[in-house]
Specification:
The chain has one domain: Peptide Methionine Sulfoxide Reductase, Chain A (2-Layer Sandwich). The protein has seven helices and eight strands, in the order H-E-H-E-H-E-H-E-E-E-H-E-E-H-H. The strands form two sheets. The chain has a six-stranded mixed beta sheet. Strands 4-5 form a two-stranded antiparallel ribbon. Helix 5 links the parallel strand 6 and strand 7. The radius of gyration is 16 Å and the shape is globular. The termini are far apart. The N terminus is likely disordered. Keywords: Oxidoreductase, Signal. This is Peptide methionine sulfoxide reductase MsrA.
């Protein structure tokens, strides 16, 4: 379940997770990249906000919420919430490299969450909310490491980035009801109080990377 330290929001969070039960719990599909597309996989806290943030970037064609970095095959959301699978809530991004580069995606990712906290994103705690980048090539790893130095040097954050930089192995797609959850549930207290501020934070940091409809 989504967790929050403040008592007055606890019921909202329980609604945000548990009340998804009546929705479609079949697993989403993880499509193969189309011709000319590349993919990237990140974890940055609740995947509801990260899916929306990455979807708003120019050149991004699709984002699939899922689970990565763990040891259990085909985990369910309930499995991951037990914090025993090793998986983090993650997103797989399908993008056009002629419009947006891997480096630009990574930079936007660093501003779409707080990469300076270990196993925590705001009110959400546990290794399933850790910050991680799952690189596919040595070049991607080098790009990430260079950008960590760049963002640290700006002192945008008071503390250094602690994002895990680890090889990509597999991403298991999450249940259908998690896909596009941010836009499908604008009435959710969790979305309004936790997810929206993350998305707005990224928009403010990298307006030049946004699709026109979000760059206003």
């Amino acid at each position: 379940m989504k967790k929050i330290g403040l008592y007055f929001l606890s019921i909202i969070l329980l609604w945000g997770c548990a009340q998804g039960q009546p929705e479609n719990h079949s697993f989403a599909k993880l499509p193969e990249p189309k011709a000319g597309e590349k993919v990237a996989a990140f974890a940055g806290g609740c995947f509801w906000a990260m899916t929306e943030a990455m979807s708003e970037l120019k050149g991004v064609n699709k984002v699939v919420a899922g689970y990565s970095g763990g040891t259990v095959k085909n985990p369910t959301y309930e499995n991951v919430c037990t914090k025993t699978t090793g998986h983090a809530e993650s997103v797989q991004i399908y993008y056009n490299p002629s419009v947006i580069s891997y480096a630009q995606l990574v930079e936007a990712f660093f501003y779409a969450h707080d990469p300076t906290t270990i196993d925590r994103q705001g009110p959400d705690e546990g290794d399933d909310y850790r910050s991680a980048i799952f690189y596919r090539t040595p070049e991607e790893k080098a790009t990430v490491e260079a950008l960590i130095k760049k963002v640290n040097a700006t002192h945008h954050y008071s503390n250094p980035i602690v994002t895990q930089v680890v090889p990509y192995k597999v991403l298991y797609p999450a249940e259908v009801y998690h896909q596009g959850y941010y836009r499908a549930h604008p009435e959710s207290g969790y979305i309004a109080s936790v997810s929206v501020p993350k998305v707005m934070k990224m928009r403010k940091a990298v307006p030049q990377l946004l699709k026109p409809e979000f760059a206003k």
